[in-house]
Write a structure and sequence with these properties.
The complex is a heterodimer of chains A (144) and B (110).
Chain A (H helix, E strand, L loop, with lengths): L1 E8 L4 H13 L6 H22 L6 E9 L2 E8 L7 H4 L16 H8 L2 E7 L3 E9 L9
Antiparallel strand pairs in A: 1-2, 2-3, 3-5, 4-5
Helix pairs in contact in A: 1-2, 2-4
Chain B lengths: L1 E7 L2 E10 L1 H17 L4 E12 L1 H16 L4 E4 L3 H9 L2 H4 L2 E2 L2 H6 L1
Parallel strand pairs in B: 2-3, 3-4, 4-5
Antiparallel strand pairs in B: 1-2
């Protein structure tokens, strides 16, 4: 089992960096371009959520852990910020508590669509952990 | 992300180059708002030919510009979005309210 950990301050400049790092780690699973785009988008959504919602201070830390086992990648994006009071509501398509920032409220929906599994654990005032996994490639071992 | 602005009479063409995420959305937003405030353009064409990445922040910022343009009686058209970008535009419901065309030349005729 391979893994990597990344800790970054919750600054928007780091969104692109986080995407690239996770994509680079995923390369060992021979992803298609489509799978890579989907993975990067899901990571971007999770990291952006931390930056926008978890913290008021951009120096707080976002922790990303990625694990690769067989053809499955598990990505964990964690923060020690405000936490989500109502997880089900937060995950509703189009729901956002920051409409003034032109947020579409589609972050979790995109994560759900582009990854194979998604779980969210959170406690108010204690932080949030978003865990998502994606299965790469065909089971017969062929790559395209 | 880089933003290039071109005016064709009452149409504003915005050519985006690079990644459209939460970090870069502000650049797009500010550029368009500045032009709209001048009052010389009415319609918006968003050229996404050179957009290599977009997440839901792109949906939000495009919708925001769509509403601003619509409030002044204008139209918005998106051109050149790659397949994986179109997928996200569709998920965000944008393709239902904003036409997606391939070429900038077609967008000018909408």
């Amino acid at each position: 089992m391979d893994y990597m950990r990344l800790e970054i301050p919750a600054r928007s400049e780091n969104e692109s960096f986080a995407r690239v790092v996770v994509a680079a780690f995923a390369a060992r699973l021979n992803p298609t371009l489509e799978e890579l785009n989907e993975l990067k988008t899901a990571v971007s959504e999770a990291v952006t959520n931390c930056i926008l919602h978890a913290y008021d201070d951009a120096d707080s830390i976002i922790s990303i852990k990625v694990t690769a086992e067989d053809k499955t990648l598990v990505v964990e994006v964690a923060d020690q910020g405000k936490g989500i009071e109502d997880i089900a509501k937060a995950m509703e398509p189009l729901y956002t508590d920051k409409p003034e920032l032109e947020r579409s409220g589609m972050g979790f929906t995109i994560m759900e669509n582009f990854m194979d599994r998604l779980t969210v654990k959170s406690q108010k005032g204690k932080g949030t952990v978003v865990t998502m996994s994606k299965n790469f490639g065909k089971t017969d071992g062929s790559n395209h | 992300m880089q933003v290039q602005l071109i005016r064709r009479k009452e149409k504003l063409i915005v050519r985006l180059k690079g990644e459209l995420d939460h970090h870069s959305a502000q650049i797009f937003r500010d550029a368009v708002e500045n032009e709209l405030e001048k009052g010389t353009v009415r319609d918006l064409i968003v050229n996404m030919e050179n957009v290599t990445f977009m997440d839901s922040s792109g949906i939000g910022v495009i919708l925001g510009r769509y509403k601003q343009v619509k409030a002044k009686g204008g139209k918005t058209v998106i051109c050149g979005a790659a397949a994986h970008i179109q997928k996200i535009l569709q998920m965000g419901g944008i393709s239902k309210i904003i036409p997606l065309v391939r070429k900038e030349s077609s967008a000018l005729e909408v």
